[in-house]
Amino acid sequence: MPRKVKVEGGIFFGASNYAGTLEEKIINYNYTLPGYGAMIRYNFTNKFSLRFGLDYGTIEDADSAASSIARNIRNLSFKTSIFDGYLAGEYYFATWSDRYKKFSQLYILGGIGSFHFNPQALYNGKWYNLQPLGTEGQGTQEYPNRVPYSLDQIYFPIGLGARFTLSSSWFLNFEFRANKTLTDYLDDVSLTYASPDVLLAQGGPISVALANRTGEKFPNDVRDVTGGSRGGTKVSTDWFYFTGFTLSHTFKPKRHCYSF
User: Model's pTM, two decimal places?
Assistant: First the structure.
C-alpha cells in the first residue's frame, strides 16, 4: 500500500456506555448515549501510529431498569458526563485492498489518559452532585478508610478498530474503545451502606436519602442496613466505553516552489 501521510486529524461520533456496579448487561441499550471527540494522528510507518484524542460523552444507569429483583429493591441510579484526553499507540496488524486499490486495515490500540466526571442523581425533580455528599461515609471519622474520591482520574484505553480508505486523503475508522479506570465510583457506588446517623451529621438529610433509596419504592420496608452490601465488599474498578466512527483527513506538507 502507499506510504501513509505523516499527520492527519479527525472527528469522532458514536456512542458511550459504562460497566460498573449498576450495570446489569455488557451493553445496556437503554442507557447508550451519544459520544463525540476529536483526534490528531501521527503515522510513523504504515504499521504504527500515535494519536492524541479528546472525547466527551454521558454515561448513566439505574437499578429500576434491571431485571434483578434485588437491584430493583436497591433502587440506586446515576448520571455523569465524561470528558477525557488520552495518548495512544496504534498497531495495524492486517491490510487488504479491493479491486479499486482502496486499502483497509485492522488495528489494536493502547495508551494512557485522564478524565473528569461528576456523578449525579435525580431526587424529587432535582439533580444532586453525589461526591460532596459522601454517600458511603467518605471523609468521616467513623469510616477513616473511605476518603472522598477525586473527580479527576487516570485511565487506560484499549481498543480494536478498522480503517477504510475513502480517497487519497480521507479515511473512516470504526472503533471500539474500552477505558479501564482506577476508580470504583463512576456511579458513586462501591462498598457497604454507611450509618444514617453518620451521613446525617456529615452531609445532611440529602446524603441519607441518596445513600439508601429502597424506601422510595418500598416505604413499608424501611430498615437499618448499615454495613450491608451497597455495591459489594471489595473495590472493583469501573469502565467506560466509546464506540463509533472517526472521519479523518491527512495534512500533506506544502511543496515549496523556487524561482531563479
Answer: 0.91
- Single-letter amino acid code for the residue at 213: R
**End-to-end Cα separation, the chain, in angstroms:** 37
Q: Check if the beta carbon of residue 106 is closer than 8 Å to that of residue 100.
A: no
| Greatest pairwise CA separation for the chain in angstroms | 93
Phi, psi torsion values for 91, nearest 5 degrees: -120, 120
Over residues 183-197, the pLDDT tens digits come to 999 999 999 999 999
Which residue, 34, 172, 177, is CA-closest to 102?
172
Residue 173: beta bridge partners? Answer: 163, 246
Q: Residue 84 and residue 1: Cα distance in Å, rounded? A: 33
Helix, strand, or coil (residue 29): helix
Q: What is the dihedral of CA 144, 149, 153, 155, to 10 degrees?
A: 70
